[in-house]
Amino acid sequence: MKSIYQRLNLPNFKPVFGLTKRASLVNRWPPGELDNSPELYDDKHLCYARYARYAIDLRYHAYVETLVPELTGAIRDIGLQHIFNEIKWPQGTLMQPHTDGVDRGRHCLQFLMETGGENVTTAWWQEKNFPLVRAPRNLSDRVISKDDLTKVTEVILTKNTWTIFRTDIIHDVKIIQTSRIAFTVGFSDDAIFETIVNKYGM
User: Fold this and answer.
1) What residues does 98 pair with on adjacent strands?
2) Would 177 be classed as within a structural domain?
3) Cβ(86)–Cβ(162) under 8 Å?
4) Contact assessment for residue 194 and residue 107, using Cβ atoms and an 8 Å cutoff
5) Which domain holds residue 133?
6) Cα(85)–Cα(195) distance, rounded to whole angstroms?
7) pLDDT, greater one: 101 or 81
8) CATH number of the domain that residue 75 is part of
9) Could you tell me if residue 190 is inside a domain?
């Protein structure tokens, strides 16, 4: 494995078909955290963010394949992602340590439309007694103890930028004050991932 994430030199995302939200695919609190009691993260008591994911116009498959031809035939999922501080918790919220669902793929191409606040970080972690890259399963089905995690790397992603990153490594997003909105494309081919990193990486 050569890369975990990479900023990409691609044209700005233009919603050519509009981004009308169809039925929400996901709209939930993290499992086991329905009362959303704050926990101590980074010396702040953070609540868990609300997460929603929406299906969008299927013609975006062709749009993405034109933008990044390497993804032709490899896209597993395209959607609009919304992570937000629904209760306006003053110290902010976080997307808990997790891996993405099996159906979405092991990698994500993302255009960040709204950051959700100043200096929101995305960090990747290794869980004690487990490999860095995880087998295809949805780790968001259980709450991972932060005490068992060691940080591998982290980045602050900026608005109106493309990034590619691995979603089969435990990652979290924090501290979210408002709304974090992204256009995302999921796929699973490791060779395509590295090709995109090498061809379009900044």
Assistant:
1) 171
2) yes
3) no
4) no
5) 58-200
6) 35
7) 81
8) 2.60.120
9) yes
pTM given for the model? 0.90
3-state class (DSSP) for residue 68: coil
The answer to the question of residue 17 being in a domain is no
Predicted confidence (pLDDT) at residue 181 exceeds the cutoff of 90 = yes
Residue carrying the six token digits 């100043």 = 118
**Spatial separation of the C-alpha atoms in residues 100 and 115, rounded to whole Å:** 19
Burial 43-78 (b: 16+ CB within 10 A, else e): eeebbbbbbbbbebeeebbebbbebbebbeebbebb
Given a contact cutoff of 8 angstroms between Cβ atoms, the answer to whether 172 and 120 are in contact is: no
Tokens of 148: 């068992």
- Does residue 18 lie within any of the structural domains? no
- Structure tokens belonging to residue 109: 């191409």
Q: What angle do CA 170, 172, 173 make, to 5 degrees?
A: 155
Q: How many domains does the chain have?
A: 1
**Separation CA 201–CA 199 (nearest Å):** 6
